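Support request, please re-run this one:
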Amino acid sequence: MIEMDSKKWNEKIKNNFNDAAYRYLEHSNIQKFFAKKIVQFIQELNPHKKGEWIDLGSGPGLLADEIEKKFSCQKVSRIDFSKKMLLENKLSRKKILWDLNNDLPPDINNNCSLLTSNFCIHWLNNPEKIIKNWFSKLKPGGFLIISYPTKDCFPEWKDTCKKIDIEYSGLNFLCSKELLKDFKSTEIHYSEQLDYIENFEDVYKLFRSIKNIGAQSTESKRKTVKELKEMQKFWPKNYNNTVNLSWQIEIQIIKKL
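Re-run finished. Output below.
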């Protein structure tokens, strides 16, 4: 595996998301599914309307738009490090161009009653530290809701690589215990793992789908055509010869007491 310094790595991630910004909404099925789930939770929690609502790593505004549809009086600020993603957002909302690897922007004081983040935290350099920082911006009674892929994602991909003895080049995702280790059990309001399966005609379309949303960044070397052909040959097939990509997604709700 090629070790890449964090500056180069962050630049690579940003460029890939910038390039995908114009087509992200069309291809982000799993992100849409979990955005809707998060909105259901918000409806149940009914966070305080006073205090800021912010979506962290908002991309083109997929989750923020969903929240505003259900809470029509509520404005959700959007923060993202990709300028092109922010430009895809509706023009009327507060948009902040900001790298979430740094603390939150200085004008966000501890007055947030809702912070959300959908499929973002696993791209950041120090998730445990960052999530504590986000949590510190909540006012008492405020909620932080995050969703992210866990380390148990993509068993088909990992098994296929083992079978044909090539390096698994996907991301190694987060372990939820690690991420929440600095929180008191009373602060963890809710935590659940959900399985989600994507289905594709072949392995080439599967990898194309990852690229379509800008999520193809990896620290490994690109696969050769020969390796991809091998993967297509040995990847487990369904009865109709299609292939699956299995995700395990964690949703966590942390409450400021």
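The chain has ten helices and seven strands. Residues 7-156+169-199+246-255 form a domain with the Rossmann fold fold (CATH 3.40.50.150).
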